[in-house]
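pls design
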């Protein structure tokens, strides 16, 4: 009889209510609500008597470090939060659950069929921005931790819950938790994986291209150089680069039609309707392959752009510049020598979950780089970031059960 699982089941209604409450806090990265939600969760844990470390993140100090993972929104403040259930054996392996509380903006309100922050519960799902990415997964981890705590279950090793912010724009929160000294012998990030085990992430590097032109009155447009036309030379070259980099990919990435996407997300050009545009600024993300060093990926990209410029008389003299800014997600992979994947599979109720990689960056690479074997395993299908985002409540509960079993089954030492 596993008392923690019983406690988890007894708290189902409360778990759902907590999830709805969290969805109703519009914790978009860089807004005051991003801090508010951390304090909300901290209060919830403190009210239960769980040991928490809640601290103001020294944002500017961390952002100045050479390995800082990037940040795309301004933050006056940010908070770190790690909860800890102490284990009975100081030598036993510890386990961290990690989940981010920040969400991306909802986009155009008209694309949603209801208030993006409704936290509505219907059709077995919780709805709203962040439901899938990843308040559903966070609440699964939170409810697992609370079930262990309330039932008086004492795992052998420490069980930690890291509630992080700034994941969507780089990884500030997990970086800050590591900088504060928090470590574990294994980590499960409860990002949405539809309960598959995600053991590797491609990386994603945010870039900015500045394509120069020459302004002229549009009535005499041939006396100028259109930055838009020059961008038309660059864009297909980038598409070709993407195709070349996806010809052969790691087998874990085979389920994706494009394992390492290169996409331009924003384009701005010109400042007047009847002026030849003298500047085009395009921003995008560049996929980093598994095991590919970030500086090698950047070099390939920069060389490709430079070569394209060399073939055009104007761009040869006025080359496109490449700037790396914002989120700089290296790729990451759970090391093959650990038993973490097997532990998640064994704790999962039902057929063993598939082991896959994914084309998006996540905090996994920060944790594995710190020597912590890490996988993603969580409720929800897709990646969020879309209208009418939702998460399956049954998957939230299934994820929580797996986490409770992982914490309570005595993990054998690594071979
Ligand atoms: Zn996420």
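designed seq:
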């Amino acid at each position: 009889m596993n008392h923690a699982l019983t406690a988890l089941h007894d708290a189902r209604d409360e778990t759902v209510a907590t999830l709805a409450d969290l969805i109703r806090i519009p914790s978009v990265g860089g807004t005051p609500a991003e801090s508010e939600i951390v304090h909300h969760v901290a209060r919830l844990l403190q009210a239960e008597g769980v040991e928490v470390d809640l601290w103001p993140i020294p944002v500017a100090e961390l952002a100045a470090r050479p390995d800082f993972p990037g940040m795309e929104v301004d933050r006056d403040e940010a908070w770190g939060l790690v909860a800890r259930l102490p284990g009975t054996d100081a030598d036993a392996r510890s386990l961290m659950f990690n989940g981010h509380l920040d969400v991306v903006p909802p986009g155009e309100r008209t694309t949603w069929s209801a208030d993006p922050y409704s936290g509505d519960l219907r059709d077995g799902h919780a709805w709203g921005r962040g439901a899938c990415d990843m308040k559903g997964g966070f609440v699964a981890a939170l409810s697992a931790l609370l079930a262990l705590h309330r039932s008086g279950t004492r795992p052998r090793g420490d069980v930690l819950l890291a509630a992080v912010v700034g994941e969507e724009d780089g990884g500030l929160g997990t970086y800050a938790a590591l900088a504060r000294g928090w470590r574990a012998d294994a980590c499960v990030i409860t990002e949405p994986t539809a309960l598959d085990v995600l053991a590797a992430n491609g990386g994603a590097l945010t870039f900015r291209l500045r394509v120069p032109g020459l302004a002229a009155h549009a009535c005499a447009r041939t006396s100028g150089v259109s930055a838009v036309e020059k961008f038309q030379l660059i864009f297909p070259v980038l598409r070709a680069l993407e195709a070349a980099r996806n010809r052969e990919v790691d087998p874990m990435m085979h389920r994706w039609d494009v394992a390492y996407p290169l996409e331009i997300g924003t384009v701005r050009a010109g400042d007047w309707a009847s002026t030849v545009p003298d500047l085009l600024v395009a921003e995008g993300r560049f996929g980093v392959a598994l095991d590919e060093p970030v500086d090698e990926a950047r070099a390939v990209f920069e060389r490709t752009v430079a070569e394209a410029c060399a073939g055009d008389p104007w761009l040869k003299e006025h080359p496109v510049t490449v700037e790396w800014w914002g989120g700089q997600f290296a790729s990451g992979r759970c090391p093959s020598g650990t038993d973490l994947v097997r532990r998640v599979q064994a704790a999962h109720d039902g057929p063993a979950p598939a082991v896959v990689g994914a084309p998006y960056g996540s905090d996994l690479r920060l944790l594995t780089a710190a020597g912590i074997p890490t996988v993603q395993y969580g409720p929800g299908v897709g990646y969020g970031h879309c209208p009418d985002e939702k998460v399956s409540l049954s998957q939230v509960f299934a994820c929580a059960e797996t986490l409770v079993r992982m914490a309570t089954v005595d993990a054998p030492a690594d071979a």
